[in-house]
Write a sequence for this structure.
């Protein structure tokens, strides 16, 4: 999934970016509220981590701009402002969750999973189809009794497909969700990673799960 981090403490921003990237997220980051508003106006994200005290525009202004544009993107406020009134204001302004600094990265990851799970209409961290099971909290993938080792991008791609079971996803939509602004790879990157994933997921199995829809994109569904 693709995440935006808006945090003006550059060291903290960098650490969160590295942590979430290692967890398989595609991450973009910025350091002030105005840039966050600009980015959110033309890019869709699966979640936003938003500091409140930022230059040029604070977190509340960023959130208001996002909600005024009718985007329901999950937002996690990350802030040192820990009073009850601050938390109430944040949640009543349209944030989905509120995490106070200093914080545990394990808790940040768990809260991200929770708010994105709700946005995808899921109730658990388990995604499955046929005998393929992904445990998003343990970060494991199994088909039948066999565990499958995936790279971070392969894992992110499979998670995105599983969140959209039965829905044909275009190459452009996949690329926009799995790769961030810094990506400078080839134009066939989605096809390449689908090929990698298909070998690991469907190789040796009579029931194929990852399908190519000619001229439209890819879909994960139970089929022959």
């Amino acid at each position: 999934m693709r995440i935006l981090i808006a945090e003006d403490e550059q060291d903290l921003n960098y650490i969160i970016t590295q942590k979430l990237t290692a967890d398989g997220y595609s991450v973009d980051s910025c350091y002030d509220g105005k840039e966050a508003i600009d980015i959110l106006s033309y890019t869709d994200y699966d979640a936003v981590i938003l500091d409140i005290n930022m230059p040029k525009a604070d977190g509340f202004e960023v959130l208001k701009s996002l909600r005024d544009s009718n985007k329901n993107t999950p937002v996690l406020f990350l802030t040192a402002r820990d009073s009850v009134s601050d938390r109430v204001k944040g949640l009543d302004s349209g944030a989905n969750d509120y995490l106070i600094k200093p914080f545990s990265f394990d808790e940040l990851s768990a809260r991200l999973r929770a708010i994105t799970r709700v946005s995808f209409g899921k109730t658990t961290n388990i995604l499955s189809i046929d005998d393929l099971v992904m445990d998003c909290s343990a970060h494991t993938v199994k088909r039948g009794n066999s565990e499958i080792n995936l790279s971070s991008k392969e894992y992110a791609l499979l998670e995105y497909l599983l969140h959209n079971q039965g829905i044909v996803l275009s190459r452009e939509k996949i690329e926009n969700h799995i790769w961030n602004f810094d990506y400078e790879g080839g134009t066939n990157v989605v096809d390449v990673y689908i090929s990698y994933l298909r070998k690991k997921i469907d190789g040796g199995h009579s029931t194929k799960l990852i399908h190519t829809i000619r001229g439209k994109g890819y879909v994960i569904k139970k089929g022959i």
In short: Residues 126-223 form a domain with the Arc Repressor Mutant, subunit A fold (CATH 1.10.10.10). The mean pLDDT is 89.
